[in-house]
Design a protein that fits this description.
Blueprint (H helix, E strand, L loop, with lengths): L3 E3 L3 H11 L5 H19 L5 E7 L4 E7 L3 E7 L6 H7 L4 E2 L2 E5 L6 E6 L9 E5 L2 E2 L3 H13 L3 E5 L2 E2 L1 H10 L4 E4 L1 E2 L2 E2 L11 E2 L5 H6 L3
Parallel strand pairs: 1-12, 4-5, 4-6, 4-8, 8-10, 9-11, 10-12, 11-13
Antiparallel strand pairs: 2-3, 6-7, 14-15
Helix pairs in contact: 1-2, 2-3
């Protein structure tokens, strides 16, 4: 699908496998999520606008390039928090704005419970961070909040996506690029021995596995 980018980097696939393993304990899970976030944000920011400025090397004057756009990181609470440090490793000056959304277990619809965005946007590009793009409801709601805020450029950066989540986000916002490490088979549903709406084969609940809950 246009505007959907799946990383094929061997290290990304290797680290994703570590996350998928049920034996991976929370401490290691958090470390690997941060490492994957760094790699995926690197790929998602290849089109940042640059501006030239004069500098001097130890040998001679020249023109160097600086990033000319202000970037905002928008982790969807709580699972998206684990991706912030990894993104900050590449973008130490990035602003971080938190959005609290949870998925109702019965309707699978997103419910907003936290939003502290200022009145006017302060960044040029927002990266929405969430490990899982399952039904797409939370991601779509987050993008709508940012659009209403007035952000012109938005990208979604996650680890694992389901086809249904990609379809929902892309249908509502085709201009939002989606960067993930993998697209899995489907979502769980009736007949599966797990609650509905989980990514299959996935890696379980990313929030619970990070924070040792559930």
């Amino acid at each position: 699908m246009e505007n959907v980018f799946v990383s094929r980097h061997p290290l990304v696939q290797h680290k994703l496998t570590l996350l998928r393993r049920k034996e991976t304990e929370p401490k290691k899970f958090r470390e690997v999520i941060g490492e994957l976030a760094t790699m995926l944000v690197y790929e998602a920011t290849q089109d940042l606008r640059l501006e030239l400025a004069p500098i001097e090397t130890p040998l001679t004057p020249m023109h160097g390039a600086y990033v000319a756009e202000k970037v905002g990181l928008v982790p969807i609470l709580r699972a998206g928090l684990g991706m912030v440090e990894g993104a900050w490793d590449l973008l130490p000056q990035a602003e971080v704005w938190h959005l609290g959304l949870y998925r109702d277990e019965h309707t699978l619809k997103p419910v907003s419970y936290y939003n502290k965005l200022p009145v006017a946007p302060t960044v040029d590009l927002c990266l929405v961070l969430d490990p899982m793009l399952a039904t797409g409801g939370s991601a779509t709601a987050a993008v709508q909040v940012l659009k209403d805020w007035g952000v012109a450029r938005i990208k979604f950066v996650g680890l694992v996506a389901a086809p249904a989540g990609i379809e929902m986000l892309h249908t509502n916002f085709p201009d939002v690029a989606i960067h993930v490490a993998a697209i899995d088979e489907r979502l769980t549903g009736p007949g599966d021995p797990f609650p509905s709406g989980y990514i299959w084969p996935g890696l379980g609940d990313a929030g619970d596995r990070q924070f040792g809950t559930g």
